[in-house]
Design goal:
Blueprint lengths: L16 H8 L13 H12 L10 E6 L2 H22 L5 H17 L6 H11 L11 E8 L6 H18 L3 E4 L10 H7 L5 E10 L14 E5 L9 E5 L2
Antiparallel strand pairs: 1-2, 2-4, 3-4, 5-6
Helix pairs in contact: 2-6, 3-5
The protein binds flavin mononucleotide.
Length: 245
């Protein structure tokens, strides 16, 4: 590996404060029942607003939900919607359902492979059974709306923008959890109308935000990445470096 000169990096040095936040941030799924000051939420939003985006198109719109009344209703509807989805798609419960429902569910999985991936499907099952909460009792939700007319790939811009907020929030002592499950609410016209989600905007994601309570769920392991490095000339083979060992 080339060794460049840097005033901020020396070989073998420990993580700097930014890297520490990146490495130590974990999704928080338990929050203190305490509202956050508006000024703190605005500081987090500011980190999102300053995110890079293709062509500086800034294809986003933020909605802050601070109201326990509204968040409770979102939680209730997430349970209702999850129950509905389970009735429509979960063929594992009886032999009869397996017979009639399986081909339909398989087709739906093919049409919506990301939304009906086993991970969100499993979470939906847990929410439907009241074993998990969609929003984990967070006092604040930030909804990230995507302007679908954005340059190139607006979904990538939203991811960068949201992660800027997440990193800033953790650096300020807050806990966050991305809540992709929020999408389930957009199947209900009630919520699309309530939040005014219509073309050119769509709900891309949600970040739950609050003071963390207790210990986080535990570290989720990361895969070692086999990274291909091209260091030589056009005819030299690349080297493969195991990143993360
Ligand atoms: C785009 C996105 C959507 C996510 N949606 C959910 C969700 O709906 N519910 C949830 O509990 N966790 C959700 N997560 C959190 C992931 O499960 C978590 O980031 C992953 O397991 C790694 O754990 P860590 O964040 O603690 O490092 C989501 C994460 C991302 C990036």
């Amino acid at each position: 590996m080339a060794s460049g000169k840097s005033e901020k990096w020396t070989p073998g040095m420990g993580w700097n404060p930014v890297e520490k936040v990146i490495m130590q941030r974990r999704s928080i799924r338990s929050f203190r029942n305490e509202p956050l000051p508006d000024a703190l939420i605005q500081r987090v939003l500011e980190a999102g607003r300053f995110a890079p985006s293709a062509g500086n198109s800034q294809p986003w719109k933020f909605i802050v939900v601070n109201s326990p009344i509204i968040i409770s209703e979102m939680e209730r509807d997430a349970v209702r919607a999850s129950k509905f989805f389970m009735r429509m798609h979960d063929y594992s419960r009886t032999e009869k359902r397996r017979h009639y429902l399986k081909p339909y569910t398989k087709l739906m999985i093919r049409l919506q492979p990301n939304d009906l991936h086993p991970v969100p499907f499993g979470l939906m099952q847990q929410i439907a059974r009241d074993n998990a909460r969609a929003f984990y009792g967070a006092p604040t939700l930030i909804l990230l709306l995507e302007d679908v007319r954005g340059v190139a790939n607006p979904s990538t811009d939203i991811g960068i923008c949201g992660q800027n907020m997440v990193i800033a929030a953790h650096s300020l002592g807050l806990g966050t959890c991305w809540i992709g499950m929020v999408k389930i609410l957009t199947y209900m016209s009630k919520w699309r109308k309530f939040f005014g989600i219509k073309y050119p905007y769509k709900l891309n994601n949600c970040i739950a935000l609050g003071w963390p309570k207790g210990k986080f769920d535990g570290e989720v392991p990361r895969e070692v990445q086999l990274v291909t490095w091209f260091d030589g000339g056009m005819h030299d083979p690349p080297k493969i470096v195991r990143q993360g060992e």
